[in-house]
Design brief:
Elements: H1 5-13, E1 18-21, H2 22-28, E2 38-42, H3 48-60, E3 66-69, E4 74-76, H4 79-87, E5 90-94, E6 100-103, H5 114-119, E7 122-123, E8 129-130, H6 133-139, H7 146-166, H8 172-181, H9 185-191, H10 197-212, H11 216-224
Parallel strand pairs: 2-6
Antiparallel strand pairs: 1-2, 3-4, 3-5, 5-6, 7-8
Helix pairs in contact: 3-4, 6-7, 7-9, 8-10, 9-10, 10-11
Length: 230
């Protein structure tokens, strides 16, 4: 029997942090959808060269595995792995029970942001990390794929529900931090329920911006909003 993807990911986690991204992470957040491959963000280390060397060492522990890159998923080794990490930010491992894409730099993130994303992630029982739903949604933006649009909508709904529950009682600093990360008319509506006039003003500023851009929900909310005096 060949090496499974789970076994290989377990080897990655022995000495390094690994964040699960892609379809597996969306499924872990509760979205029922299929996936044909696995995607992880592997500790980017100090340089593409260091990253490539560690990855190749781990691959060498198993038989019948190969490392590939775009275009055409051509096989690479040695310095070519570091070049792929620098050029397109990822490589693919073939020879497992399903293709495994390993990223040093996922879509919409730099390698330097790994620590920040990790700080918001949740530790899985297998030693990998599950990213915050908003970070995961960001990694799927601008791909122009229908399945990613569906994933982003689902992940943003999780974030929206969390924000709506938090904002009515959040402090000014908490509200600002939340709305800096994700904001729409519904989260602004929740922030308007906060008794702090400064939180209300943050929400109103966003609503005015959305309304000026033509958002009918923000326009209606502003028209019907009566903020009591502080």
């Amino acid at each position: 029997m060949g090496t499974t993807t789970a076994q290989f990911i377990a080897a990655l986690t022995e000495g390094h942090d690994v964040i699960v991204i892609g379809g597996l992470a969306v499924i872990a957040h509760g979205f029922n959808r299929p996936t044909k491959d696995a995607d992880v963000w592997f500790d980017p280390l100090d340089s593409p060269q260091a990253w490539a060397e560690v990855l190749e060492q781990i691959c060498d522990r198993f038989s019948d595995l190969s490392i590939h890159t775009l275009p055409g998923w051509k096989p690479v080794e040695g310095a070519e792995i570091a070049h792929a990490a620098e050029d397109i930010g990822m490589v693919r491992i073939l020879g497992l029970d399903c293709p495994l894409d390993i990223f040093r730099r996922p879509n919409e993130f730099s390698a330097d942001e790994f620590g920040a994303v990790l700080s918001r992630a949740t530790l899985n029982t297998d030693g990998t990390w599950l990213p915050d739903p908003l970070d995961l949604a960001i990694s799927k933006e601008l791909t122009n794929r229908d399945k990613d649009v569906q994933d982003v909508n689902f992940l943003e709904s999780i974030v929206r529900n969390r924000w709506v529950n938090k904002l009515p009682t959040a402090s000014v600093d908490e509200a600002r931090a939340l709305l800096d990360r994700f904001v729409d008319w519904r989260t602004c509506e929740a922030a308007l329920l906060n008794p702090d006039s400064l939180v209300q003003e943050i929400a109103l500023a966003y609503l005015r911006e959305f309304a000026a851009d033509g958002d009918p929900f923000s326009q209606a909310l502003l028209a019907n909003t009566q903020i009591p005096p502080a």
